[in-house]
Amino acid sequence: MSAPRFSSLRPVRPAVPGDGPALGELDRATWSTLHAVQPRPQPPYEPFFDDRHRPEDILVAEAVAGGVEVRIAGYLRLARPTPLACNAHVRQIQGLAVAGWARRHGVARALLHAAYAEARRQGAGRLTLRVLGHNSAARALYEAEGFVVEGVLPGEFFLGGRYVDDVLMGRSLTA
Predict the structure, then answer these.
(1) Residues 6+ away with beta carbon under 8 Å from 175
(2) How far apart are CA 105 and CA 160, in angstroms?
């Protein structure tokens, strides 16, 4: 099956429970040691949504593909990094994926902008994320969006036969 042509991006929306199968498929299709620290998913697949990964934590980007079909082009998981009250002002991006056919069309940037708005709506003043050191494309996007490196855990993960840094990034939502 050939990849659909990207036509137009629709407004980012919150996920609904019915998105689970398509989001799971997208997650598996985009799996790579460039960003994943867990082994490649194998059947039988776990549901995309569970007690820790709820629809209300997911923002979904849809695009018109092939001129007529609306398909999920990407998602972003936005959650509290800890359950601590003293950390309630922070939200963390805990996953971002864009379908191969939808890359380089502003999907990731649209998801990030929607995450800023949603985090602010939730009362957050700060947004953080973790990105693997060798994922230069993601790091460049985050830096262009105002994230700065706030810490590096050298050699935190052993992936694909080599040690990879865990880079901690953050940005203010109040400016």
Answers:
(1) none
(2) 29
Residue 109 CB burial class (10 angstroms; 0-12, 13-18, ≥19): middle
Burial class (CB within 10 angstroms; exposed 0-12, middle 13-18, buried 19+) of 131: buried
Distances (CA, A) of 33 to 59, 90, 93, 131, 162: 23, 27, 18, 12, 11
Amino acid at 163: Y
User: Tens digit of pLDDT for each residue in 27-51?
Assistant: 999 999 999 999 999 999 999 999 9
Residue-wise pLDDT tens digits, 95-138 = 999 999 999 999 999 999 999 999 999 999 999 999 999 999 99
Cα separation, 46 vs 125, in Å, equals 33
The number of beta carbons lying within 10 Å of the beta carbon of residue 148 is 11
Taking the whole predicted model, whether its pTM rises above 0.90 is answered as yes
